[in-house]
Each structure stands twice: as C-alpha cells, then as structure tokens.
Write a structure and sequence with these properties.
The chain is of the alpha+beta class. Helices cover 32% and strands 33% of the residues. Helix 3 crosses helix 5.
Length: 203
C-alpha cells in the first residue's frame, strides 16, 4: 500500500526557504480545528487541544486505511493561527492575551461524516475534554508570504521581522500570523526545530 504524502503533493506551501521570503498561493484546505486563548507554554487548554487534534487525526488515518478505500497517508503537521484582540499584546509577548486556532490539514477525501465518526471513536478510547470544541471546516488563506525559521520558538522574532519587512515593502500585511510546525519537538533538539512562518499578503 503506497502512502500519500500531502507535504510533497503541496510542496510549495509545506516547504519553505530559510534564506529567502517566498510568495505563495495557498489552496483551500480542510482542517480539524480548535480555538483557544492563553500562553501555549502553560495553558492546559492548549495542551488538551493539541492532544484532541492529533488523536482524531490518527483515528481518521487508521479508519481510512482499514476501510474499503484502503488509503494510507501521513498525518499532517500541527499548525497554528495566532493573534490578539489588542495586537500590541502579540508584539509585546503578553502570551496570556494571545488568541489561537490550532489545526491539522486533512486530505480532500475526508468528509464531515468521517470526522464525526472519528470523534465518537476517539471519545470511547480516552477522555478528551477538548473534543467538544473540535470542528472540521475549510480555510482559504489565499496569497501569502512565508519563510522557514530554524531554532526554538523563543527566537522567532528576527525571522518574523524579516517576513513583515518583506510584506510591507511589497504590499500590505493582513490576516493572522500562521505557523506550521514541521518538527516533532518531543524528539528534536530546539536548535533543529523547523517552523514555517506565514502571513497573508495583500498586494
């Protein structure tokens, strides 16, 4: 059974250069999503949201692989949209005021009915309070600029500044700060973490 790799299929939006900002047109994808607020480093709600997302994502993967479709695919990386009601809180690193949507992209053949079944199956396996907040919907980000950050999240500042400078030179910054976490931070050293930093760009 061949394994479908969506990161390779959509290479332009799931790979990025660490040396140059690139402009990309992001297709309309479907995601498992959970919204929340607070410091991701200390919020139990954040940890619960991530656990629920990955549990349902892997439940879906195995459901599809064992079904008559018999399709195997790699679960996509965790992604996050970040903002604050007062953007000064975001820039000033007042994490308790941060708003976020954590999400995992799904293959095009995943349906709302399949997601509902996976949520029921996941709920039977373990207690996941965040399941009640999980939703499945499309997200069309459109035209964006992106760059790869290598290293810990705490050192993203210069990379973000570089991205914003590019956007302000070539258009107008819009939308929400978007991060795609390509590394498994449980296994990789912080110096080796790879994160795509993306921001919608209005020409």
């Amino acid at each position: 059974m061949d394994k479908l790799d969506l990161k390779k299929q959509f290479k332009s939006v799931y790979q990025a250069s660490a040396t140059a900002v690139a402009e990309v047109d992001v297709p309309d994808f479907h995601f498992l999503m959970i919204d929340g607020q607070g410091d991701p480093n200390s919020s139990s709600h954040y940890a619960a949201a991530v656990e629920a997302l990955f549990t349902v994502a892997y439940t879906l993967k195995f459901m599809v692989r064992k079904s008559s479709a018999a399709i195997d695919y790699a679960v996509m990386p965790l992604e996050g949209l970040w903002w604050a009601e007062d953007m000064a809180a975001f820039v000033a690193d007042r994490k308790s005021e941060w708003q976020w949507t954590m999400m995992i992209m799904q293959p095009g053949f995943i349906s709302a009915e399949m997601v509902a079944a996976a949520i029921v199956a996941a709920d039977k396996k373990k207690t996941l309070p965040a399941l009640q907040n999980l939703r499945f919907e499309s997200f069309n980000e459109g035209h964006c600029a992106q760059i790869l950050h290598k290293g810990p999240f705490s050192e993203e500042g210069p990379t973000i500044d570089r991205l914003h400078q590019y956007i302000n030179t070539n258009g107008k910054l819009t939308g929400k700060h978007h991060e795609i976490y390509l590394s498994d931070i449980r296994k990789a050293a912080p110096a080796n973490w790879k994160t795509i930093i993306r921001q919608p760009l209005n020409k």
